C-alpha cells in the first residue's frame, strides 16, 4: 500500500515538474529573445535573422543607444514624473472618496457610490471621451491628457471604501466626540491605518502609469513629451528613430544598429521594472488575494 | 430636494472631500455619455456636438448591413472564450501543481517568472512579436531555415495570428490567475486531505476528488466575472500584435480596435461612436446577465 502511494506521488511530481518547467520557459522565452537579440550584432541579424543564442556577443546596440541618450533620459523623466504625480494625486483623491463612502452616518453615500459605480457599467465609448478631452478641455499634446484622465478608477474607490470599512467605527466616532473635523479624522487617523490598502492600490496605479502608451498615442504629438512606453512603441514601429551618434564614426564594414537597437531599447525601457519586480511582487500578491476574496 | 440640501450643508466637509472624484467622473464618464449623440450624426469636427448633420439610425444600419458588426461581435466573443477557458484551465493547473509539488526554490522561481509578464507593458509584446515573427529576420523563420524548411511570411496569412493572440493573452494573465487560484487552494482545510490520505487516496485521487471540486465555485465565479467584462480592455493586446495591418483584420478585428481606427485612422467619428455605443449596451447586457446568474447561485459574490 505504502509503495503504491509513493509511486503515484513520484509520477505526479515528474509530471508537475515537467509541466511547470515548460510553462515557466514559455513565460520566459519572449524576454529571452529580446535580451539575446539586443546583444547580437546587426550584421548577424541581417545575414541570419534573430537567434536564440547569438554567435558572437556584441554590445554595439547599447553603445549606439547610449551614444546619445538624451531622448531616452527625457522619456524617463516624463514617465517618472507622471507616475509619481499620478499615483500621489490619484491615491489622495481615491482615499478621500473611499473615506466619505465608508462613513455609515453619511446618508448620501449610497447614491454617490452608485454614481461612481455606474461608470463601470456604461460609458459613452472611446470617441466621445476623446472629443471631450481634445475639443472641450483642449488637452491635445498636453501633459494633462496623460495625467488626469487616468487618475481615478471606480473599482479602486470601491476597494478603498471596503478596506476602510474594516477599520473599527469607534475610532472616527471617538475622535468626533473629541471635536476633530472630518478631514482631520481622515488625514490623521484613517489614512495611517489604511497603509496596506494604499500600498496595493498605489502600486497598481503606478504600474498603469508606467506602462501607459495608449494616452500618448491618442493625444501627444511632440517628441519631447513622449513617455517611455510610447517612445518604445514608436521606435519599434520605426516611426521614430532612436537618435544616435553612430553614423559619424562608422567603419565601412559595419552596419548601424537598427533591428538590434529596437531590442536594446526594449531592454532599457523594461529593465527597471524587472529589477524592481522582486521587491514589489509580494505586495501585489497580497493585494490580489484581498481583491479576490472581495470578488 | 430640500432634504438633500440640508444633508449637504450638514456634511459640508465630506461633500467637499468627495467632490474631486465626482467632478472627475462627470468630466470623463458622464459628459462623454452626451456624446453618444454623435452616433446618430454624420460628425464633423468643426460642427462638434450641435452642428453636425443628424442622420438617425444610418450609422447603425450601415454597420449592421455591411456585416461589420456581426464580424466584430463574433471575433470579440470567440477570442474571449478562448482567452478565458484556456487561461483559467492553465491557471488552475499551475496552482494545483504549485500547491502540491515539493521544492520551495523551484516553486518560488516559477511562480515569480510566471507573474512577471503581468508587470510589463503591452508595447513589449509588440517587441516580442517583431522579434519572433518578422518576415526577414524573425526568430521563427531563422529556426525554420536551420531545419531546412521554407520561411513563412506571417504577415501574409491570417491563420497563425489567432494562436499568437491567444498565446500572449494567456501569457500575460497566467501568473495573476495562478495567485488567485493558489489562494483559493490554500483556504481549503487540511483536514480533507489528511482524512483522504488515511483512507489511502493517492495524490491524483485527492486532487480529483478534493481540490478540483473545491475550486469549482471560484472557477465559475472568475469565468462569469471575466465574461461580464469581455467587451472592454482588449485594445492593447490586439493593437500591439496586429497594429493597422489591414490584411489580418477579418479574423483579428474586435470592437475596440475598430472604434480606435474609426477615430485615429479613418476619422469616421459617427460610425465609430455607433460601434462604441453598441459595445457599451452589449457590455451592460452581459454584466447584468452575469450578475443575475451569480445572484441566483452565490448571492454573496454578486456585483450589486
TrEMBL record, chain A:
The UniProt record lists the keyword Cell membrane: yes
ABC transmembrane type-1 domain: residues covered: 76-280
CDD domains named in the record: TM_PBP2
Transmembrane segments: 12-35, 78-100, 112-131, 143-164, 185-210, 260-280
Domain of life: Bacteria
Membrane topology per record: Multi-pass membrane protein
Keyword terms: Cell membrane, Membrane, Transmembrane, Transmembrane helix, Transport
PROSITE patterns per record: ABC_TM1, PROKAR_LIPOPROTEIN
Keyword Transmembrane helix in record: yes
A cellular component term, taken from the record's GO annotations: plasma membrane
Cellular compartment(s): Cell membrane
One Gene Ontology biological process: transmembrane transport
PANTHER family hit by this protein: ABC TRANSPORTER PERMEASE PROTEIN MG189-RELATED-RELATED, POLYGALACTURONAN_RHAMNOGALACTURONAN TRANSPORT SYSTEM PERMEASE PROTEIN YTCP
The family this protein is said to belong to: Belongs to the binding-protein-dependent transport system permease family.
The protein, known as: Carbohydrate ABC transporter permease
Annotated source species: Cohnella nanjingensis
TrEMBL record, chain B:
Transmembrane segments: 12-40, 77-101, 113-133, 163-188, 209-231, 276-294
All residue ranges annotated as the ABC transmembrane type-1 domain in the record: 73-290
PANTHER family per record: ABC TRANSPORTER PERMEASE PROTEIN, LACTOSE TRANSPORT SYSTEM PERMEASE PROTEIN LACF
Localization per Swiss-Prot or TrEMBL: Cell membrane
Keyword presence, Membrane: yes
SUPFAM superfamilies per record: MetI-like
An example Gene Ontology CC term for this record: plasma membrane
A Pfam family reported for this protein in Swiss-Prot or TrEMBL: BPD_transp_1
Protein's name according to its UniProt entry: Sugar ABC transporter permease
Record's bilayer topology term: Multi-pass membrane protein
Sequence similarity: Belongs to the binding-protein-dependent transport system permease family.
Gene Ontology BP term (one): transmembrane transport
Domain of life assignment: Bacteria
InterPro entries the UniProt entry points to: ABC_transporter_permease (IPR051393), MetI-like (IPR000515), MetI-like_sf (IPR035906)
Record CDD domains: TM_PBP2
Keywords in alphabetical order: Cell membrane, Membrane, Transmembrane, Transmembrane helix, Transport
